[in-house]
Design goal:
- It is a single chain.
- The protein contains no helices and 25 strands.
- The protein is mainly β.
- The chain has a single domain, classed as Neuraminidase (6 Propeller).
- It is globular.
- The termini are close together.
Amino acid sequence: MTRIGSLPQALAKAAAVALPQGRLMMIGGYAGGRSLEAILAGPPGRLRVVGRLPQPTHDAAAAVLGRFVYLFGGGQALSTPSVVRIDPQTGHATEAPALSEPLSDLGAVGIAGHAYLSGGYTDAMFAQAILRYLPQGGDATVARLPQGTRYAGVAAVGRTIYVAGGLTTAGPTSAVYAVSLGGHVRRVATLPAPEDHAAMAALDGTLYYVGGRKVLAIDPRSGKVSVAARLPASLSDPTATTLGKSIVVTGGGTNGVWTLTQ
């Protein structure tokens, strides 16, 4: 892990996506007891404010669809069904057609031009569904996790979605699941201990689960899990984003920006 920059303030619970030309976008988050509305973008070591959300939010998730970034759910005191479309060229953010129900604490990945949302919290229950966002508004259920799960690590390798750890009604879980777009869910690995409030990104077919004081490397083919790196601080609700040949880690209750390379 190499530190490459600093955020404007210590924060957690933000969303992040990779942009073209080696840039990163960070959206919203939580700091100082309040939700944030800032949209940061640029080279990961030199992020700056490029726009503002219509409303402050945290615990949302983001994915790139075409030339726009979409921010799904999140909220402040309550979960929201809101979807925000952001133009990465200008930082301009506008409301897009909403989800079918409020959802926060979720994960999101973009696959073949579609956004897939994993788990979360509806303000009434822990969500089990893997959803495909519909551009006209609402969503379609693709699969269901074995139990409702929020604050999981979520990443994609090819056309498969991976969901690792997270908080269930029974407490944190150590399960790692692979979800096909055809709706098949299977357990592919087990973390050394139950974990939640972490982030996950994929690099060259390996999943990297980032949280606490370590980064775990998960081989989804063999199920092998090993410690890939030690974190310089204990991170809760960081972001982890694949950018070129590295993974960029931000926040997690700090103002740090780090890169992880294989």
